[in-house]
Amino acid sequence: MFTGIVTDVGEITRLNQVAQGQLHRMRIACDYDQTTIADGASIACNGVCLTVVASGKEEGKTWFDVDAAAETLGMTTARHWGKGTSLNLERALKIGDELGGHIVAGHADGIATIVRRDDLPDMARFELKTVRELARFVAAKGSVTLDGVSLTVNTVDDVAFSVLIIPHTLAVTTLGGWKAGSEVNIEVDLMARYAARLSEMK
């Protein structure tokens, strides 16, 4: 589990296609302490929970390898990642950690597309749209995870919704590079999903 609070921005330094395109192995450089990264650990990469299969240090920089399987490549923006892609990173939540965002599974539900970006004096406003089956879980003042970042929904209009991003978040995540047409990973709020399921069972 995660909280949607990004703790580092990593960069893909190597990408190998394995098993006839059904598996991509990626090497991600980061500033984490390599001694704290165990094989089998979970790290959210742009909101996608991936398993560490190896780690090390090279030229003073920590790196870890992860595999993205066919389903991940099909459902998320991972299919567009390449060498040089920057990724929002978050280590798995530990008992006793501060829950600064909201409960995030790291299981991206799909993709949202940025329709518009408005740069305001103290923040940026993004309007996005997603598919109807995911949009029904997005509510004004509710939580949503976009590229691994826990955000509060500002407005909702059918399959479109907006978020306001403060300068700190723009500076310490990849969100500052978002623009109209960009695709981002979306994970809807778990509570909204379960509430909808319970309603369906009545």
Quick structural overview:
This protein is mainly beta and 202 residues long. It has helices spanning 70-75, 132-135, 167-172, 190-201; strands at 8-18, 23-30, 42-45, 48-58, 61-69, 86-91, 110-119, 124-129, 143-146, 149-157, 160-165, 183-188. The strands form 2 sheets. A 6-stranded antiparallel barrel has the order 1-2-5-4-3-6.
Give me some keywords for this one.
single chain; 202 residues; mainly beta; Elongation Factor Tu (Ef-tu), domain 3; 2 domains; 6-stranded antiparallel beta barrel; 6-stranded antiparallel β-barrel
Compute the number of helices. Answer: 4
Give the class-level CATH name of the largest domain. Mainly Beta
CATH architecture of the largest domain: Beta Barrel
Unreliable stretches:
none
Total of domains: 2
What average pLDDT do the residues reach?
A: 92
